[in-house]
Amino acid sequence: MRELEERIKNDGQVLGEDVLKVDNFLNHQVDPQLMYHMGEEFHRLFQDKKITKILTVESSGIAPAVMAGLIFQVPVVFARKHKSLTLKNDLYTAKVYSFTKKVSNEISISKKFLSSDDHVLIIDDFLANGQAVQGLMEIIDAADATLEGVGIVIEKTFQKGRQLLDENGVEVQSLARIKAFENGQVVFVDEDQD
Amino acid sequence: MRELEERIKNDGQVLGEDVLKVDNFLNHQVDPQLMYHMGEEFHRLFQDKKITKILTVESSGIAPAVMAGLIFQVPVVFARKHKSLTLKNDLYTAKVYSFTKKVSNEISISKKFLSSDDHVLIIDDFLANGQAVQGLMEIIDAADATLEGVGIVIEKTFQKGRQLLDENGVEVQSLARIKAFENGQVVFVDEDQD
């Protein structure tokens, strides 16, 4: 998605080997117009699927997910992050390990918001090692719901998340695909073709 | 706002003396269409103000805030919640006490996303004791920005938040104003006039 790639080039900040900071339009400050255009793009990419619900994880997934939900006209459920829970009877939970922060968190979704009738589109801000998406997939399995696809804002193709999802036969569509950071600059997958 | 009041009547759940659970359309599962209509209503209520930025707090404030931002065509910044931070140089921070959870959290906003040129609209999901809004107001003060008003989805008029903001001369507009819970039912401020 050209608008997003340009925004990443202009406003993204490469930190070290593999971190891209996009807190000025996605992770802390949010550009609602860009989020809306991303929602339209997710709809274009998954319009042949019968989506009944969008799942994401708080907090950075919420803005792109609700814009997609607006266009798909379906409810959005955001999984909550916890250190770990004692009361779990009414919840689907999954463990999510963060390689960046080196901590394990639990994510949870109330059982009443996901059923076996649901056809789910997962939306998330980043795909790196795929841990968050995998946690949501465990929850979808536990609810006996159907995963229709995964929509990612920014994918880092050099980390193992994509491969993991491909191996599970999951359709993944990413709005921006980064293949490398070179000299502090972002290189997109399709950039050679320009 | 009639659509919101009806949704609260139909889907809200009164717990104990003073808690309203709206996790099926606002706090966990989100209805994007309703969020969009709320964004339109916030725009109608504050259209005479020159708003340059919308501020909210993660996570439940994000959905209504980004929809308002879409219609105002301004960036949205969501304050992050932490237990407490060591590195604070680049951040505005404020303490927020939660009466429900009986814990104190810190909220923070990167200094680069709020300046003295900004005219800010605060959007939040609930106004009860006003602690979150007060924290955001401290941050706006620290940045020497201008607070133009506060837009609330659900206000509980019987708690002290509204009075606190009135005393500070802040314009507050709430889309639903609850004056009491009676026998497990919600009673709105304007209900006698129906």
TrEMBL record, chains A, B:
Pfam families: Pribosyltran
Stored InterPro entries: PRTase-like, PRTase_dom, Pur/Pyrimidine_PRTase, Xanthine_PRibTrfase
Species for this entry: Lapidilactobacillus dextrinicus DSM 20335
Alphabetized GO MF terms: xanthine phosphoribosyltransferase activity
GO BP terms in the entry: purine ribonucleoside salvage; xanthine metabolic process; XMP salvage
Quaternary data: Homodimer.
Leading EC class: transferase
Highest rank taxon of the organism: Bacteria
UniProt-listed PANTHER family: HYPOXANTHINE/GUANINE PHOSPHORIBOSYLTRANSFERASE, XANTHINE PHOSPHORIBOSYLTRANSFERASE
Gene3D superfamilies attached to this UniProt entry: 3.40.50.2020
Binding site for 5-phospho-alpha-D-ribose 1-diphosphate: 128-132
Involved pathway(s): Purine metabolism; XMP biosynthesis via salvage pathway; XMP from xanthine: step 1/1
EC number: 2.4.2.22
Alphabetical UniProt keywords: Cytoplasm, Glycosyltransferase, Membrane, Purine salvage, Transferase, Transmembrane, Transmembrane helix
Positions with a binding annotation for xanthine: 20, 27, 156
Positions of the Phosphoribosyltransferase domain: 46-154
Entries under NCBIfam families matching the protein: PRK09219.1, XPRTase
Annotated function: Converts the preformed base xanthine, a product of nucleic acid breakdown, to xanthosine 5'-monophosphate (XMP), so it can be reused for RNA or DNA synthesis.
Designated name of the protein: Xanthine phosphoribosyltransferase
Keyword Glycosyltransferase included in the entry's annotation: yes
Chief location bin: cytoplasm
Listed SUPFAM superfamilies: PRTase-like
Keyword Hydrolase: no
Transmembrane segments: 61-79
